[in-house]
């Protein structure tokens, strides 16, 4: 059995072929797709977060809106770029959204990926400390965020407050119990996966990771997951961690599917540089008739290792088509793999 969710990049474009021609279109359709996915029996609705781009940015208003419209589906991010965040304010936003959703948030956080502008986090008022990198800054903010989510008091109360205070030091409110255990780290390397395990975060591994061995993507990703689980065991955490991978998977059910995804152009891994220093490997996409798709997915070692699979969806093709994509996987592929 696996949990299966969708992952939307939240693009919009004024292109005549786009069903999401504005930010409003993308936000409102994201809510409607989450509602439709819940009705179909999907387990999660996850969203990418990018700044300075025609893509979804601030996630908490969207997740709160989805939380108010749904009752069962997990609502998550993949991932929030911690270089841009104030951990204290983020705890307030996350706590409020999680309470509205009834404890269904699954927050993926990370250092983030290369953005649309140079050092965009500087425009948000942040910069690394002397001698630190932007990755150090992101990890430090993540650790602060995790500490604050524990809900322990740390702020000295005003002796003459406007309203009465509870006894002792004050914490950030609202506090959502259990959210601390539903934080995921988006790891691109084996080292950061082990670091996430040490801190007790779940693991998100996407369709891109550092090319550390030259092996096929799914094998490198499976190795990363095993390294993470070993580090988790060594850390002595009491609960069982969760691990997700994301994939572009399309069951070719009709002429629309074949027109959009039946060309086979993305059936191999790709290797490239995401910045001047980082060589990365990008995982392949899957698109085939259900029987053939099942056989292909059986060979993916990382999917086999993970407990959660996030299906990347082409959000610009609209709610109805994406619901069709999701339904095809749930009905015609997942049972053949033992996921349902």
From TrEMBL:
One term of GO molecular function: oxidoreductase activity, acting on paired donors, with incorporation or reduction of molecular oxygen
Highest taxon, organism lineage: Bacteria
Entries under Pfam families matching the protein: Bac_luciferase
Keyword Protein biosynthesis in annotation: no
Database matches in Gene3D superfamilies: Luciferase-like domain
The entry's keywords: Monooxygenase, Oxidoreductase
Descriptive protein name: Flavin-dependent oxidoreductase, luciferase family (Includes alkanesulfonate monooxygenase SsuD and methylene tetrahydromethanopterin reductase)
